[in-house]
Write a sequence for this structure.
């Protein structure tokens, strides 16, 4: 499905009382749409900047863009941008693939195809250094032919009949890189869109194949069909040849919830329709259709639910007690779906986190469960063997302070149904893709060692750099981890340019990953004294590095914990002599942009420069802008007086009204966004920059990409410009 996060949502969070029955049949159309409370808001003199593309608002944007570009876009900028673009467009990148049938599918962008190619290859060819690709869709050619700057947003395949190859797909195309997409039916054999086929207009759409001639569509169908979060409230069954308006409504939710969607599970032997009522980011309900009724899988709404073949799996966000047993947050619990639906299930605990571990994701081969786990933010891979009493076997894959990810290749292909992909990367370690088989070795009782398929080359000289992990003590005594990438023998005299990165929200974990673009953009640059850059990743609360407890520690009224953690790491870097205020830069995007806004307004004494990207900043009005209403569970509702009491304490736009202590200045601040961002929107960034300028803050700059959506860029060139703009601004202010 197409989710509505700032980045990625967890399944659910607040507990509601459970019924004594295991399942509950409901009327899928019943609803109570209660208007949300609204309180008066103070007059905002900059509300005109919320006029997204009005002439006066865009005149201001273009004027600010010209000012920023005149200062930054010089020869040094062009040289860095060119280096980064070469990395993004490099032909020797690993073309990651997804297996469907006998083909391996890949989407690829490079200098000759900036909008991208959707293509496929065979396994025999893919294993070669230079695979042969069958071109399915040239997005650049499509954009030129149709006069629309299409951005490829994914494809959904229709499962073929037994013994046949995949032949149909639903292609999602965004006109500007935003979340709204047009969905069109595509024929793979002819490599063309189906004449008269399914074609859904541009909207925030979730869609699922029900069968070859039927779709389940959650989209904008007019008045009353959207939630307050701007996502679909209703789901329709659309039959081939039928107008969307005539599709039968089969599921609907309350307008105050986030979104509704229905999917069809076409796994042979386990065919079923599943509906989801996403109440908020951490609460949802799951239903299975039985005899034309939606039957609720009756667990607390903050217990994540997923189905796989004959199993139902649960992941509680808070402690969950059932039948006298309590399952701790972040655990993985499994039951037979049929038994659970009938009320006779025996629940089995598969994974139990410790204070230093957390489950990040799972996947399935034909006979095993693959678990991606973090141990103090370093990756661990566990393979669960259901045939052996669900025993867990660690996969020995290498050194700490790296990231590993395991996923199934194709659990339905009898030739490789226990095969898995394994990716390995680190801050200074280019990505490697390997493939293995979960055939338990009788000598080691563990999975066989995977074989390397492809490796990416190094993009910068990293031999003189090292990676270390440290812990800072936050204001409440919590130990907060962070990674440091720096030159070996770093002089601890406070004179080194350091770039901090943080996020701290939505249970999203920041883990080690190769710093390809950041190499030339930051690490290998030199100051006049010959010092090179260092990079720090802050694993602050609000994220998922230690599971739900780490995330919930910074929810709503406790949001300040995330900001205190980031500030504690900054102080630790200064206290250790790694850097000093005038040499310390910080960057964050989206929810990380809100983090940066609070560093600007709450901790200006710690930072010399800040890059604040696609941010939330006006927390008084965020629920009324773009998809903001969907994040109330994370931040609170400013239209509820009790919530506004604490929300205003981390609303950077309002914190600007607080007087700075004498002798303290705001750090140099680059605030940037994208006109086409329909998730957060650009208007909060505009207003923050404009307000700082009106206050007489001289070192604030604003830049707004005209397309690219929440990603801020729709192709590699735009990405290179975006990254270079941020790096260049920060480097010039902290290099000394």
């Amino acid at each position: 499905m197409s989710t509505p996060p700032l980045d990625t949502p967890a399944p659910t969070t607040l507990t509601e009382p459970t019924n004594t029955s295991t399942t509950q049949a409901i009327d899928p159309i019943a609803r109570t749409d209660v208007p949300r409370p609204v309180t008066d808001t103070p007059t905002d003199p900059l509300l005109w900047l919320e006029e997204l593309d009005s002439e006066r608002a865009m005149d201001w944007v273009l004027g600010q863009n010209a000012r920023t570009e005149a200062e930054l876009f010089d020869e040094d900028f062009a040289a860095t941008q060119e280096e980064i673009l070469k990395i993004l467009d490099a032909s020797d990148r690993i073309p990651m693939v997804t297996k469907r049938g006998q083909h391996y599918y890949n989407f690829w962008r490079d200098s000759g195809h900036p909008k991208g190619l959707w293509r496929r290859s065979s396994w025999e060819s893919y294993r070669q250094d230079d695979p042969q690709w069958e071109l399915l869709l040239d997005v650049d050619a499509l954009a030129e032919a149709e006069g629309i700057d299409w951005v490829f947003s994914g494809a959904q395949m229709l499962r073929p009949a037994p013994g046949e190859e995949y032949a149909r797909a639903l292609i999602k195309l965004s006109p500007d890189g935003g979340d709204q997409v047009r969905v069109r039916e595509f024929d793979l054999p002819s490599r063309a869109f189906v004449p008269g086929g399914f074609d859904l207009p541009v909207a925030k759409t979730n869609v699922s194949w029900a069968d070859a001639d039927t779709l389940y569509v959650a989209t904008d169908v007019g008045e009353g069909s959207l939630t307050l979060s701007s996502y679909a409230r209703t789901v329709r069954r659309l039959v081939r040849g039928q107008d969307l308006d005539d599709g039968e409504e089969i599921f609907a939710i309350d307008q105050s919830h986030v979104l509704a969607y229905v999917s069809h599970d076409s796994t042979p032997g386990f065919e079923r329709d599943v509906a989801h009522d996403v109440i908020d980011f951490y609460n949802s309900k799951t239903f299975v259709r039985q005899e034309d009724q939606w039957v609720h899988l009756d667990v607390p709404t903050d217990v994540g639910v997923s189905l796989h073949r004959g199993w139902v799996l649960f992941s509680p966000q808070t402690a969950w007690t059932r039948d006298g047993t309590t399952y701790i947050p972040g655990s993985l619990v499994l039951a037979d779906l049929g038994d659970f639906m009938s009320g006779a299930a025996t629940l089995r605990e598969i994974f139990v986190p410790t204070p230093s571990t957390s489950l990040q994701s799972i996947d399935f081969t034909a006979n095993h469960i693959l678990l991606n786990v973090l141990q103090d933010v370093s990756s661990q891979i566990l393979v669960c063997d259901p045939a052996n009493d669900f025993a867990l076997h660690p996969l020995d894959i290498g050194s700490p302070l790296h990231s590993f990810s395991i996923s199934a290749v194709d659990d339905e292909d009898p030739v490789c149904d226990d095969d898995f992909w394994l990716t390995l990367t680190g801050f200074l370690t280019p990505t490697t893709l390997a493939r293995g088989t979960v055939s338990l070795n009788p000598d080691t009782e563990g999975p066989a060692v995977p074989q390397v398929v492809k490796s990416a080359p190094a993009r910068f000289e990293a031999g003189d750099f090292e990676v270390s992990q440290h812990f800072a003590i936050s204001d409440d005594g919590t130990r907060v981890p962070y990674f440091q990438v720096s030159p070996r023998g770093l002089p601890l005299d406070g004179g080194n340019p350091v770039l901090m990165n943080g996020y701290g929200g939505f249970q999203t974990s920041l883990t080690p990953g190769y710093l390809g673009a950041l190499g030339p953009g930051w690490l290998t640059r030199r100051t006049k004294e010959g010092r090179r850059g260092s990079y720090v990743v802050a694993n602050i609360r609000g994220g998922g590095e230690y599971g739900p407890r780490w995330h919930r520690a910074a929810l709503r009224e406790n949001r300040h914990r995330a900001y205190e953690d980031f500030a504690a790491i900054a102080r630790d870097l200064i206290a250790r002599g790694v850097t000093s205020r005038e040499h310390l830069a910080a960057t964050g995007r989206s929810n990380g942009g809100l983090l940066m806004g609070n560093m600007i307004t709450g901790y200006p004494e710690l930072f010399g420069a800040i890059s604040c990207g696609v941010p939330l900043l006006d927390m008084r009005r965020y629920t009324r802008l773009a998809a903001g209403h969907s994040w109330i569970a994370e931040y609170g509702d400013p239209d509820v007086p009790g919530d506004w009491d604490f929300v205003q304490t981390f609303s950077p736009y309002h914190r600007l009204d607080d007087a700075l202590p004498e002798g303290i200045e705001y750090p140099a601040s680059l605030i940037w966004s994208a006109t086409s961002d329909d998730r957060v929107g650009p208007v909060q960034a505009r207003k923050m920059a404009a307000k700082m300028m009106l206050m007489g803050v001289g070192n604030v700059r604003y830049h707004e990409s005209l397309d690219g959506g929440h990603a801020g860029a729709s192709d590699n060139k735009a990405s290179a410009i975006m990254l270079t703009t941020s790096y260049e601004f920060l480097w010039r202010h902290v290099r000394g």
Summary: Confidence is low (pLDDT under 50) at residues 1-5, 7-40. The longest strand covers residues 113-121.
